Amino acid sequence: MRQRNSSKDLEMHVHGYMLLRRYYRQVGLLLISVLVIAIFMITSPQVFLSSRIYFTFMSTVPFVGIMALGLTLVLVSGEIDMSFPAVMAFSGYVFATIYELTGSAMLGFVGLLTTGATIGLCNGLLITKIGIPSIIVTLGMQFLIRGATHILAKGYQKVLRGIEGHILYTIFAGKVGGMIPAQAVWFVLLAILMWFLLFRHRFGNHVLFVGDNKSAAHMLGVNVDKTKILVFVLMGILAAFAGFLDSLRMRTWWPTMGEGYMMTTFATVFVGGTSMFGGEGTIFGTFVGAFLIGSLEAGIVAAGLTGFWTQFIYGIIILIAVALHTLIRKREGV
Amino acid sequence: MTVMGVVLHPNISLGWQWRIRKMEQRDKLVLMKDIYKYFGNVCALNGVNFEVHKNEIVGLIGDNGAGKSTLIKILTGVFPPSKGELYIRGKKIDLNRYSVREAHRLGIETVYQEQALGLKQALWRNVFLGREPIGPLGFINVRKAYAETEQLMRDFLGFTSKAVSPNSRVGILSGGERQGVAIARAVYFKADLIVLDEPTRALSVKEVKKVLQFIEQVKEAGKSCVYISHTISNIYSVSDRFVLMDRGHIVGEYNRHEVSESDLTDLLIHHSQKAVPHD
């Protein structure tokens, strides 16, 4: 009897070890995140040992996190998007304006999503049909859209009067169970959806191959242009949605929304482990990376360092993380 | 005139002649008639007639610039000819509508020089790219794809090592093994005609042997193969027929038992030295 049990134990241990080997990168990222939080707990126990900071993270991290999910897909497809902070702001402007004029948050929401999708479509078309590299298209779009936002807003923010009463506010800015911020719930749901979309859906398979070997994908009947356009449309929708969540949370829209999110979003995706070269990516990595990067600034400031240290430490973390990921990939032989 | 061993009376009716021609065509898996292809002023194909029968391995041989790749690309739907007709299983193809997807549907698959594989992706993803088994919302039936890939690996590819699974990245395989994956992909999707573009280029001796084995398996499965090559030595043994091309013309057609390996090489050199290609 005893012998049988021990061999079953061994089997479970071996199985557990194999699982660990397969997912060691994800486990590694989790461990590093836990380590960083542990360091913060030591440097500023009054902040990081109380639950308040974590609930704050849950309502602030998702804005960058949701855009990082979209950016992950863009990078996997072999392209890049630099326009999403401006899309976030401009879509928010459309929402705020429609709400102001009609009082309908729903109409504003639809307008917001449509705006994001349309800008994404423009990006996609310029890249695939005209052939301009995505870095140039999206950089130009960033200036264009941000400029347009400032021109239209004339520097004023828009207060969303009465928005708390709307059902959309409850769904997208309320608290689940009175405690968990809705933004976090939506972030989790979207992360799960994106994982299935990328790794278990035909579209995701096409995205992977378009980024890995574009001509192979084409030769096997994949519509490369359509795939890329859809990726940018999705990015636009997610950026718009992030703008929606941010506006709702602050019950205000402001013209400089999204500025400062560019660096943190890229940092999130790269620290998470997605490659710059396309053809591979990790949704889980982006998800964990969002919280890691999202907590850095708070931890640094709470530790007593000035805000100047933030950029410096971001830089160190990004370089170390990307170096590690690159070395691991080299070792895996791809 | 002799048709299928029967001597025909010259006064035979047109209707009958048409019927007999139809029967002949059906016997042929592929018939390309009078194919011309111009790229601007350059004539890549100059009145080429090419056919492939059922369960036949045909070698399309010729030096660079002979037009072999161009002919094959027309056959597999990559682009249409400037002039000419294409019949697949006796049925005339509308060349305005023909495409790679259509060619796949008709059972013609190509294994490219570059293998058309995503090296960073799992084996099962590579096998099913463009033809993923999906449910109603487009989500892939991964279990099915995984199981079928596993079977393909054991049966056709002969992968026995535990180190390679359907989840393994294709990048870890050797050149010959990758070639095998590309061929297995074509076989799995029930291609009747597998077109191989320079299948043994840049492969080691051992790997060349493997690819030849794969081609033999294709023959055993009752399918046909057309391969392009400008070296004969590797593929002489598995071929049934050789078609020699030179500068847009077909300059010779030989069954394997009619000609030796060295004869073929001599013929190739002989033709390439002539100023203008002719039979």
Structural account:
The complex is a heterodimer of chains A (334) and B (279). Chain A is mainly alpha-helical and 334 residues long. Chain A has a single domain, classed as ABC transporter involved in vitamin B12 uptake, BtuC, CATH 1.10.3470. Chain A is built from 15 helices and four strands. A two-stranded antiparallel sheet of chain A has the order 1-4. The model of chain A has no long low-confidence stretch (mean pLDDT 91). Chain B has 279 residues and is α/β, with parallel strands linked by helices. Chain B has eight helices and twelve strands. The radius of gyration of chain B is 20 Å and the shape is globular. The model of chain B has no long low-confidence stretch (mean pLDDT 84). The A-B interface holds A 196, 200-203, 205-206, 208-209, 212-213, 215-217, 219-222, 279-280, 332-334 and B 100-101, 104, 110, 112, 114-121, 125, 128-132, 134, 138-140, 142, 169, 171-172.
What portion of the residues of chain B fall into strands of 2 or more residues? 25-35%
**Straight-line distance between termini of chain A:** 47 Å
Low-confidence spans of chain A = none
Strand content of chain A: under 5%
Neighbour order of strands in the largest sheet of chain B: 8-9-10-5-11-12
Largest sheet of chain A: 2 strands, antiparallel
The helix fraction of chain B, in percent, is 25-40%
Q: Strand order across the biggest sheet of chain A?
A: 1-4
Query: How many helices of chain B does DSSP assign?
Result: 8
Number of strands of chain A: 4
First-last Cα distance of chain B:
22 Å
Biggest β-sheet description of chain B: 6 strands, mixed
The top level CATH class name of chain A: Mainly Alpha
